[in-house]
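Bit of a strange request maybe. I'm writing a small parser for structure token strings and I need a real example to test against, not something I typed by hand. Could someone generate the tokens for this chain?
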Amino acid sequence: MMKLIDKIKEKLSGLVEAFSRYPLTVAFLTAAAVVNAMAIHQDVDYSKYLLTFLVGAFLGFALQAAGERFSDKTSYRIGGMALCLVLTLGYFLIVRQYNSTSMETWIRTSVALFALLITFIWVPVIKSKVTFNQSFMAAFKAFFNSLLFSGVLFIGITLILTAIDLLLFRVSDKAYLHTLNIVGMLFAPIYFLSLIPVYSGVADKNRTSEQLEHNREKVERSSLCPKFLEVLISYIVIPLVTVYTVILIIYIARNITGDFWTDNRLEPMLVSFAIAVILIYILACSLENKFAEWFRKIFPKVLVPIVLFQIVASVLRIQETGVTHGRYYVIIFGIFAAASGILMCFIPVRKNGIIAALLIGFSLFSIIPPGDAFTISRASQVGRLTDTLIENKMLENNTTIPNPSVSEADKKIISDSVNYLAMMEYTQEISYLGEDFDVYEDFFDIFGFYRYEENAYRQDSIYLNLDQQSPIDISDYETFVVANFYIDNEKLDSVITEFENNGKTYTLTRDKTAVSGMLVLSDKTGSELMRIDMKEVFDHFDTSPGGDYQIIKDSMSAAEATFTQENDQAVISLVAMFLAIEKSGSEPIYNGDFYVLVHIKK
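Reply from user aminoacidic:
Good idea to test on real output. This should exercise your parser:
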């Protein structure tokens, strides 16, 4: 019991110490939690303020780590806090000028926060007896400890709220979000910081021998690899990564003259492999066993050629797609991974801080103009779009000229570039598109054809809806009925409707023999007047490359949604209310609801 009480006291004292070590960080995290609570309660976007407070929190603990390592003066700490406030204010003044928080802002900020986190881990051990490997292990353990404690705390509070809701009185659904906000935004990061030891620094000369001994013991305890983690890394993770590496090498060897250079699926696999190898290498540097030693000797040499192949493949892909921020980061990470692999082959493990410095440098380079991911990708995609328009004589005197006869390859280039520029909110900067350009509403009018939009998983599934406000002209038809066609046709009645025209009775039925179904019009005697293969109807609306209906819209007009078939006895028009063409499997799956309009010829 006493041990448990001592443990609780130690944890509480650690939290109190975190408040005193990182006052600005705690203040900014509290502000972020308040902003999040306001957003949950009011359903308002406060993302600019949230990002600002997060930047302040990360700057706070990074500058505090630098202060602990290099100075013992109170003036330095006050100056660091002032610098933190000034930089945070500067960030806010930059983001507040935009109407919304764009994807570019989120990515730039995320990369900057990542760089500050690595700085926080690396700076305390610069030219220190404690290695970067030890500091990284301490941060690694602190992260998962805080994750575990926060998860248990959140689950416990959630169960209490649920019990109150079921047994006592109604609890608002937002209470769970507020709990997640407080635990995730406030408790988890503060608890993480409380587990980070005070490393040796200039201020050691002002500490008592007891304080120095306490700090030294905490550093040793925090940086010691637990037996569980050692077993996990050495005897489970390393063998799994080895098998994964063998599979990659076999694939590359078999496809080096073909698919390897154009296989988009392989790129994220290679990046994941590089991340895993570098992470495991740093963790394995704290281990002393044959598996860890073998990994440290072999895998840096394996990493370099694989990453070089990935860089070349990504550069070749740029020739087809132009530069995007995603591919920019793939390439720049590949360069970092190759450089890290070379360093790991030659430098001793205690010098791994160089890898951290390299990572910080590449991260900052990727977000600071003019060589940053966004300046380069924007210029690349605008240039690619402009060049393609000029080649097809679609741009003169800074004015676009619609051209529906453009080749399919150029249609895709134009569509891909415009899709990317619209996603990144860059289109307002392109004068010939106009400040109010809307990719959904204006694309056809400006370019003369409907845009391509490739599914992220290359499945090219189609989902289209009828604009409910679009009028349907039924003046040329005598019958109007709704018909449904779904993959589970067996649950639908075969007879859709019976109707009379000029004293004769006619029947619309579903023929369920075909995969997508048939629509059959017959007279009273059973003679077939018209048969429509619904696969032809669905294929008409296929918007994937090579399909018949090149349009991507949130909703279709009645004219766009209409498919008509005619013979010498009848005219049938099907107006698609909703349709879905699922292409995730080996065979497409067709589902749809249609208005069916029928005209019987005299």
